[in-house]
Amino acid sequence: MTETDPKIGTVMAVQANFYQVRLDEGQTLLCTRPTRLKKIGQNVLVGDRIYVKSTEFERGAIASVTPRKTELQRPPIANADQILLVFALEEPTLDPVQLSRFLVKAESTNLKLLLGLNKADLITQEKQKEWEEKLKLWGYEPYFFSVENNQGIEEIKTALKNKITIFAGPSGVGKSSLTSLLIPQLDIRIGEVSGKLQKGRHTTRHVELFEMPQGGYIADSPGFNQPDFDCNSQNLINYFPEARHRLSQGQCKFNDCLHQEEPECIVKGEWERYEYYLRFLDEILAQEEKIAQTRDTESSVKKMVKDSGKVYTEPKLNTKKYRRVSRRLSHQKLEELYDHQSLEEEDYF
Ligand SMILES: Nc1nc2c(ncn2[C@@H]2O[C@H](COP(=O)(O)OP(=O)(O)O)[C@@H](O)[C@H]2O)c(=O)[nH]1
Ligand SMILES: [Mg+2]
Ligand SMILES: [Zn+2]
After folding, report:
1. Which residue in 80, 120, 265, 310 has a CA-CA distance of 20 to 30 Å to 41?
2. What is the DSSP letter of 276?
3. Closest to 161 (Cα-Cα) out of 173, 153, 171
4. Closest atom of ligand 1 relative to the 178 alpha carbon
5. Ligand 1, atom 17: nearest CA belongs to which residue?
6. Per-residue pLDDT tens digits for 196-245
7. Do 153 and 94 have their domain in common?
8. Total structural domains in the chain?
9. Chief subcellular site (predicted)?
């Protein structure tokens, strides 16, 4: 055992009970979390800056965890600076609704959000200009790039330098291609569906950091490749920049306005994605209702017998009451449902 001062490093990956730590001085250690840290409830996440005592060759023990700048639960990552949401302009054709789902999910992390549109080689200048103008109205200034012909890559390198950036986006858009362009020595598979490779319970919780030669890390997690919402009916509106802008100009009449048909609502109006907002809101309300019903099943269902003789259950409470319950739902409850959902999606992929 070497008795040296603790050294500082970054947690790159977690494997079973071991933490892969890259020391600032260059070495990679496999570390354990001592019982002392477990006892005080100190968890260790990928991205954490930690002090390590090296014990023997390439092994170490975590001495302490430095305070986090940011923290995400799903996927679990500490100190991420930003998200780069990647979509393709073609192959697959950019779909504004799907893009908006991912944007909402990314916005709900409250991390800085960068939008990168790949495969610019497959569309005309005019088409690109159209997207640029549309997205400007949504409140975004995307990076147009192409891994294929190296277009726009320098701008992305600059934006990622010395930061921890989470790569997010659906499969097939070029995330792996971009990663291997930025980190040529990395051996990653292009054109593979990520979910297929890492099937299993913890897929959405798995995170790994890859170090870029010019400084900074790329965080890759399948947990960000699914567009499930991480928000509730009351805060959904905050994840649309153009609506945030409207809300900064005034107030709706009702505090709990959902910006549907309520009178004197300042959000409702002529903005392109308002209809997407309504659509997503409906989905979230339906989810919340489902959770409320599941939670109340034992106490509030009555057994009904159909004409056919088939027995079914029906909620005792009326829908209005459920709606009031659902608006007060905690984030916790929502997450439980989304957990189930993600698992089902993983099985599917
Ligand atoms: N035309 C074109 N194809 C690309 C570009 N970038 C990636 N691809 C192709 O898109 C497919 C999916 O890429 P991949 O990196 O695996 O996407 P991922 O699923 O997001 O990781 C592969 O066949 C890539 O060769 C690009 O800039 N232009
Ligand atoms: Mg990939
Ligand atoms: Zn309103």
Report:
1. 80
2. H
3. 153
4. 15
5. 174
6. 444 444 455 678 999 999 999 999 877 677 778 888 999 999 999 999 99
7. yes
8. 3
9. cytoplasm
